[in-house]
Amino acid sequence: MKLNNILTALFLLLFSGPALVAQNAQLESKIRKWVQEKKLHGVSVMIKQHDSVIFEQQFGQADIEQHKSLTADSRFRIFSMTKPVISLATLKCLHDNKLSLNTRLDQIFTDFESDEPITIRQILTHTAGFSYGGEFSWQGFQYWLYDPLEKSEDLNEFMERLSGLSLGFDPGTAWEYSISHDVLGAVIEKVSGLRLEDYMRREIFNPLGMMNTGFIHKGESINNLVKFYRYDKEADKAALLEDQYAYDKVITSGGGGLYSTANDYMKFLDVLLFPERYADLLPEEVIRQLSKNQLAASIGSIPESIYPDSGFGFGVGVQLTAGEYLPKDSFYWAGMGGTMFWVDPKNELQVVAMTQSLGHRRFMESYFIPLVYESLWLVGE
Predict the structure, then answer these.
(1) Residues 6+ positions from 323 with CB-CB distance below 8 Å
(2) What are the tens digits of pLDDT across the range 81-124?
(3) Rounded to the nearest 5 degrees, what angle is found at the Cα of 351, between the Cα atoms of 347 and 354?
(4) What is the CA radius of gyration of the chain?
(5) Can you list the alpha helix ranges (DSSP code H) found in 147-214?
(6) How many other C-beta atoms are found inside a 10 Å radius of the C-beta of residue 257?
(7) Which residues make Cβ contacts (< 8 Å) with residue 106, sequence separation at least 6?
(8) Which of 327, 319, 208 is nearest to 265 (CA)?
(9) pTM for this prediction
(10) Which residue has the higher pLDDT, 19 or 215?
(11) What are phi and psi of 331, to 5 degrees?
(12) Pairing of β 310-312 and β 258-260
């Protein structure tokens, strides 16, 4: 251990109260400046280290037009941060029903057609060959034509529309971000015999105390839901989205349909960092699989444009080597509406930060990660 780290550890041991005050003051000052400069219109932040909350605060507004401030129970669309939660639910559903990661999709949906057999493991890791559509290819044309995510009324119809569409590659041979977790939502419904919302409430949200987390559907009003903005570069400020439901789905979307709070999502991260405490939910070794790199050596890492030098677990990116700030084996993900999290097992550090603005994902990741590590004096460990 470096000398400065030893001295820091001794200082924190002797003066943890003043140290935390200094850390919080630095964090608070910088975030307030971002809000004042309109780089962010509002953000909710929660940080835990060594299983203790060391910072929890809301800044700015939930509704600019109505001058409504963010509060601890303000709810955010978390989009792709839904995926890790659905991954945990999938692992539980498989375990409770004595299925395995090698169970094939066509064993669950016997009428489902695909170019090659697809396993649940491949779906969890986005290596099944599915897509989100939009690419210039035969697969992309089919997704545009059948559009399972937008044209389906429920998960049964979603699977019917997806059945028979071309795969982008042979399952297990490549990685592509995709509708895989929406497929997993359908799997949970089929195997459990419950609606996805009901399964999640009974098996995940209620046991973990995530009472401010649930699914939002197109056109549905949710109490305390933060207004949805986009960053207007020309005006250098947040602009209200004309259609607040433009990015919501009719189906219950396991790939991006949850709303949540920073506090609720932190309860989920507790499971991933301290799985030994949640034996009533799942065996420790099963939970740990979620945050471990699952990609074959032949695939290597996910695209650098998403996260550099990252493997992929079951719904999360995994740091393959020590980065400038994140130690090896840290794991993380974000949502396109400006929500993000990371967990650093080495330092027992958990961070959730939530804003609600298209175009702010990169800002959040680029500035929050350095700010937290520099404020906590963890740089270079």
Answers:
(1) 308, 309, 330
(2) 999 999 999 999 999 999 999 999 999 999 999 999 999 999 99
(3) 170
(4) 21
(5) 148-151, 155-162, 180-192, 196-200, 206-208
(6) 25
(7) 112, 113, 114, 117, 118
(8) 208
(9) 0.93
(10) 215
(11) -135, 160
(12) unpaired
